[in-house]
Amino acid sequence: MAAASAALALALALALAAAVLATVLWRRRAAAAGGGGRVCVAVLGDLGRSPRMQYHALSLARHGRGVDLLGYLQSRPHGDVLRSGEIRLVPVAELRGLRVGPKLFQYVVKVIVQAIQLLYTMLKIDKPSYILLQNPPGLPAIAVAWVACLVWGSKLIIDWHNYGYTIMSLNHGRNHPLVQIAKWYEKLFGRLSDYNLCVTNAMKEDLWVNCNIKAVTLYDKPASYFKETPLELQHRLYTKLAKDYEPFKPRTEAASSNAQRSAFTEMDEKNGHVIKTRGRPALLISSTSWTEDEDFSVLLKALEDYERYINEGAKLPSLVCVITGKGPLKDYYNGLINKLHFKHIQICTPWLEAEDYPLLLGSADLGVCLHKSSSGLDLPMKVVDMFGCCLPVCAIYFDCLHELVKHDENGLIFRDSSELAEQLKMLFLGFPTLEGKLHSFRKNLRASKQLRWDESWDQTVLPLLGQNE
């Protein structure tokens, strides 16, 4: 523990020393000009897979703020971000890590290099009035953003999505020295922020009680483009995906030579009329970052039970299960999927374009969420998006999930694969009937008149930004 503490302390010391040096050499740009209301929205992660930070950038741009959106450019951000004249993408090169020496040494070196790189990037942009930083990942981002704010005379806003040390504990255990140091760091540097946002009331309370940090809850809300997808757009999407993914291809030939088919829809090319095909499979969708906080073996085991129900004579539809996303465990789970031999279930794991993802959610019959919060204090944004599309959800239980999923009202909560399998059986029995729980949940979601991101942001964040201007 002592050695690990000393190592990380040395890393932070070197990083801060580099920060001071960079500050001196930077010609004090902070004094050169006013911030002009600009905001740096930063995440030490992939911008394309950071929807909440993209939403922040779009909301700021909508109110005439110039935005520097800073992060890794691994995946393409949403088209609205790319088209905005107020948003400038600021790429940060991702570090692959040192492969020489002990793992602790590699980690320390990576933190030092990231700190210098991130500070250089933050000081290179036009002076911002605010730096709005996502946490996690917060090491070394919080400390670096704080130093950058000192240089610029800017305000630091941290958007707490979770605690980084709890995610780290999934690999190392809560008592590992690195986890304890990360916890200390997060609490210490988190207190240096000027303002704080968080994603649940449970996290707001925890930040105050355990960290003495006062935060405002900004719930994740769906963007305006998360909505039910019209049938014609569904058909267009299915035929597009059918070019690359077998489950979207039609099961049988079209009855008419004028008809264009997918697995779910059929279009008469003469009049453009689209209908859902008779005997179509149900479309089940989940999305994931393929990390340790989501155990997809739960879903795979439930699908095995579902297949058994059909073989035993249950009147259930075939399933197409789509699991979208990128992440470190994708190859591992694809290996498990390839070992399954289903007759009535097809599984595919695509990475969808940003514009296609909401269209697919708006076309699906049921969503499944396997996110189990590492802290028990954050909520899965994928469920927020699904609800925006009026898509009922089956979600695995964890503390504070009740702030989003209302059991037996807008979806169902399960605790294991057996319970999920029973829920799938109950929801899809007699599919595609307009009776039963599945239809009832969708009606409840349609009637709920959910608050959208723009309205929520204007009510919560806009007043915060106006306090000092």
What's a concise summary of this model?
The protein is α/β, with parallel strands linked by helices and about 475 residues long. It has helices at about 1-25, 50-60, 80-85, 105-125, 140-150, 165-170, 175-190, 200-210, 230-240, 295-310, 330-340, 355-360, 380-390, 415-430, 435-445, 455-460, 460-465, and strands spanning about 40-45, 65-70, 85-90, 130-135, 155-160, 195-200, 215, 260, 265-270, 275, 280-285, 320-325, 345-350, 365-370, 395, 410-415.
Notes on the structure:
The structure is a single chain. With about 475 residues, the protein is an alpha/beta fold. The chain is built from 17 helices and 16 strands. The longest helix is centred in the first third of the chain and has 24 residues.
